[in-house]
Amino acid sequence: MKSRRVLLVVSFALAAPLTLGAQLTGTAKWADSARREIEAAHAAGDLDRLNNAAALVERALVATPNDRLLLYYRSLALYRSAAQFMGRKRNDDAKKALEEADMLLEQIETKSPAADALALRGGVIGQMIGLSGNPLAGMTMGPKSSGLIDRAMETDPKNPRVWLIRGMSAMFTPKMFGGGTDKAQRDLRKAAELFAVERPVAPEPSWGHADAYIWLGQALQQEEKLDDARAAYQKALELQPTNQWVKQVLIPSLSTKPKD
Amino acid sequence: MIAASHRFGILVVLACSLPSGARAQTSGTGSARIVRGLVRSPDARPIEGANVFIIETLDGVVTREDGRFAIPVTTRGTVTLVVRRLGYAEQRRSLAESASAELVITLEPSSVSLAAVSIQAGQYTASEERGATLTPLEVVTTPGTAADVNRAIQSLPGVQAGDEGTALFVRGGDFTETRVFLNDAGTLTPVQLQTPTGTFTGTVDPFLLDGIFFSSGGFGARYGDALSGIAALRTQGRPLRSSATASAGLAAISGAAAVKLTPDVSLRLAGNKTNLQPMFRLNGSRRDYDPAPHGYDLSGSAIYSYRPTGEVKLFAIRQTNALALGVEEASYSGDFSLDVRGWQGIATWRDVFGVISPTLTAATSRSERATDFGAFLLGTTARHSQLFGQAEWQPVARVIVRVGGELDRIESGYAGSVPAVGYDVRPGARITVVSSNRTGDRAGAFAEADWRPIASARLVAGIRTDRSTLTDERTVDPRISAAWMAPLGVTLTAAWGRYHQVPDPLYFDDSLAAGARLAPMRAEQRILGAQVGDGAWSGRVEAYDKRYVDLAQRTRDYDVVAEGTGHARGVDVFLKGPAALGVTGRVSYSFVSSRRTDPNSGIVTRAPFDITHTLTAVAERTIIAGWRASMAYRHATGRPVTPVVASTYDGAQQVFVPTYGTPMSERLPAFHRLDLSTSYFRQITPGLQSVVFVSLMNMLDRENAQSFRYNPDYSRRFVVPSIFERSVYFGGTITWLKENR
C-alpha cells in the first residue's frame, strides 16, 4: 500500500511539470486563441468575427511585433477574410487583405521561413493573380507562388497544409500550365492522409483538415463524380460540423443540374 | 449570439494573458472608464471595421457599421488610443484620465498604408519585390534597350542618355562617377566597350539577374567610392525548379540551364555569344566595322542553401568583347580597334541568426584592355580584390542597425604610347611613352541606423569613413535620408550626404599628373522629393543640388589636372501607370544644369554631360493573351562641345593645330529615337514555353549625332552619326521547366 502511495506521488511529481509545461502563456496564448477563433469564424462564414480575430492579433503584434506565430495568424485571418470578401464580390477589400497578408508572410520568410508560412504565402500570391486584373500577372506571380510552395515542400514534405495549398493551387492553374483537377485530387488526397496522422501541438498551426475534403469534393464535382464529391463533403462536415459553406452551398450544389 | 459569447470569451482569455508590463499599469480600483467615439473618413462617412485600442493595455474593439466604438479602460493616467484600418493612415491620440468627451477621429486614406514606408530619395528598384519601380519583365522588354541592363536603367529618371551608348551619366555627373556592384562586389568597368563612337555593352546579361537597385543620388553609407550614383545588381538565386533555355536572335545566341542537384544545392550555367555583323548586313550601318562588335560571356553559379535562412553563393563570369572600325579624325583616318576581356569571381555568404543578419562577400576580378588607333597604342590591365562584410541588427521592432566595412585593392598597369598632343594622332606623331603599375588599397567602414519611428516615417542616418593609399587621406562622409507618408497618399523624401571617390589609379602616374596632388574627389548632394502611389501607378518628382570639389580630370592632351569644381542642379520626374485602351506606360523626364571646371581652359562652364532635357516614354499593351506590343520614345538635348574656330599650320610637324573656341559653347544636335517591339509568348506544353520577338529600332531613321569631326585644316565640320539606322531585330527563346512531381 505504501509503495503504491509512493508510486502515486512520483507519478504526480513527474506529471506536474508536464501539465504546467502544456499551459500556454503570453504570446503563445494569444496565438492559440487566434488560431481557434479564426477557424471557428471561418467555419461559420462570419466575416465580422474574422475581422475581430485579425484585429486581436494586430493588437498583440503591437506588444511583440516580430512574433512568428502572431504574424502567421494575422496572415491566416486576412487570407480567410479575403475568401469571404471574394464571395461577397468585394474584390478591392480582398486584394487589400491579401496584400497585407503577403507583406506579413514575407517578414516571416526573411526571419525564419517555415513550411506553413511559405505555403500560405504561395496560396496568398496565387489568389492575388486572379484579383490582379492583369492577364500577364500569372507569368510573373505564378512561378513565384509555385516556387514558394515548392520550397515549403522541400522544408517539410510531411506538412499536410503544404499539400493542401498545392492541391488548391492546382485547381486554379490551367492544365496547360501544369495544374488541373487530377493533380489537385492527388495532392488533396495526400493532404487528407497526412492530416489524419498529424498531431499538432498548440499554438502551432493545425487548420486545414476539413479544407482538404472540401477542395477534394470540388475537384471531384468538377469531374462530375458526384457521389465521391458528396462523400468528401460529408467527411468535411464530420470534421467541421459548423461549416456553413459545405452545408449551405456545396452539398446543395450537388443536386443542382449543371447548365448546358 | 454564439459569436458574441465567443468573442467575449476570447477577450477574457486575452485580458488574462496581457504582458506583465501592461498588467503592472492596471488600476486596482476596478472601476473602468469608457472611451467612446466615432471613426470616420474625411468626407464624414463612418468607417466600419477599424481596429481601435489602447496601446498600454491592448484593450480594444473593432468599430461597428456606424463607425462607433466604446472601450473600457482599466488603467490610470493618460493612455494612448490607436486607430488602424487597411487603406488608411494610422491615427494616435493621447487621452488624459479626465477626458470624457466623445472622440471623433478622421482617418486619412493612404494608398501606401500596407507597407511601412520603403521609398527613399533617389532610389529605384527593378525586381519582383513589393514597391519595385520596374519588374524584370519590364526591364528586358523595354524597346530599344536590346535587353541591356544599363540601357534599361537609362529609362529611369536622373540618367542623361544623350546618345545610343550604354554609359550611365547620372544627374550631371560623368559615367565613371556611378559604381556598379554585382552581388555586393564592385565591378571594374561600368561599361564593356568604350570607343570614340560611344559605349556598346553594359555590364552583364539581364537574364542573369533577379534584382536591380539603382540610386541616382542620396544613397546610404553602405556605398563608398562613388560620387553620383549606384547600380547594384543581384544575380539569380537558387532556381525554383530545374530549367533550360535556348535563345537565338539576329546578333546573338545564348543558352542557360538551372539544375537543382539536391534540394539544397543548385547550379546555374549561362553562355552568350554576340556578333552584330548579321544585323549590320541585314540593316546596313553608317559605320565601317571590321570586325563588328562581337564577344561572348560565360557564367556559372553554385548556390548552397544549408538551412532555410543560410545561403552560400559562388558566381563567376568571363566576358570578352572586341571590335574594329574606321574612325576619321582631322589628323588621321584609320582603324580603331579595341579588345576587352575580363573575369570576375564572387563568393557571398548570408544568414539570419535571430535579430542579426550577417553578409560576407569576397571577390576578385581582372580586366585587360588593348586600344589601338594611330599613335594611341595602349594596353591596360586591372586586378581588383575585395572583401565586404556587413551585419544587420534589429534591436527593437522599428530600428535596424547596419555596420560593416570593406577592403579593396586595385592593381592597375598600363604600357604603350599616347599622343603628345590630342590633335595629332597620326602614326609616327610625337608620343609620350607610358608604362606604369599602380596599386591602391582602400579601407572603408560604415554604420547606419534605419529608424521607423512610426509606420509612416523613416529616417536613415549613417556615416562612413574611407582611406586610400593613393590619396593618403581619410575621408568622413555623413549621410541622412528621410521619408514621410503625408496624408492623401503623398510620400515626401529628403536626403543630404557627402560623397568621396578616389580618382582613377592611372591618374596618379607622374607622366600624366605632372606633379599635381590628387585628393579624393568630393560631392555634396541635397535632394527633395515627393511620390504618389506605389503600386500599379505612381508619380515621383525630385529636385537635387550637387556640388563638386577636388575633381581630377583629363585634358584632351591626356594630362591630368586636379582641383576641379562644379555643380549640378535639376529636377527628375517619373510617372507610371495604366492609360486608356489597356495601355500601360511610364514616362521619365530629367532636367539638369551641370557645370564644372573645363580641364583644358580652367574655367567653370557647362559640363560635357550637361544634357538639359532627357525624356523617355514607354507604352505597352497586350494585344491578345500572350501577345504584347510596346513602344519607346527617347529625346535628349545635344551634348555640349567645344568648337574649333580656326587653325594654324605647324610646318615642323606637318599638321594643323586647332584653335578652340569658348569651352562647351555649342551642342550636338538633339537626340530623338523611336523603337517598337512585339513579342508572343506561347505555352507549348506544361513544361515548355516559347517567346518570339521582333524589334524595330530607330523607326524614324533619324541620324543621331555621336560627335563632330573636322577635315584636316578644320575648315569644315561633319556630324559623326550614331551606329543604328532604322533596323529590324528578331529572335526567339524556348524554355523547358521541369514539372512538379
What does this protein structure show overall?
The complex is a heterodimer of chains A (260) and B (741). Chain A has 260 residues and is mostly helical. Chain A has a single domain, classed as Serine Threonine Protein Phosphatase 5, Tetratricopeptide repeat, CATH 1.25.40.10. Chain A has twelve helices and no strands. The termini of chain A are far apart. Chain B is mainly beta and 741 residues long. Chain B has two domains: 33-109, Sandwich (Immunoglobulin-like), CATH 2.60.40.1120; 123-737, TonB-dependent receptor, beta-barrel domain (Maltoporin, Chain A). Chain B is 6% helix and 56% strand. Chain B is built from six helices and 43 strands. In chain B, a hairpin with a 5-residue loop joins strand 29 (538-554) and strand 30 (560-578). Chain B is globular.
Q: What is the count of distinct domains of chain B?
A: 2
Strand proportion of chain A: under 5%
Number of helices of chain B: 6
Gyration radius of chain A, rounded: 20 Å
CATH homologous superfamily assignment of the largest domain in chain B: TonB-dependent receptor, beta-barrel domain
Low-pLDDT stretches of chain B are 1-30, 111-117, 195-200
The first-to-last residue Cα distance of chain A is: 78 Å
The CATH superfamily of chain A is known as: Tetratricopeptide repeat domain
Helix content of chain B: under 10%
Biggest sheet of chain A: strands, sense, closure? Answer: none
Oligomer: heterodimer
Largest interface: A-B, 55 and 47 residues
Roughly what is the average pLDDT of chain B, rounded to an integer? 83
Please give the domain count of chain A: 1
- CATH level 1 name of chain A: Mainly Alpha
Helix/strand class of chain A:
mainly alpha
Named CATH architecture of the largest domain in chain B? Beta Barrel
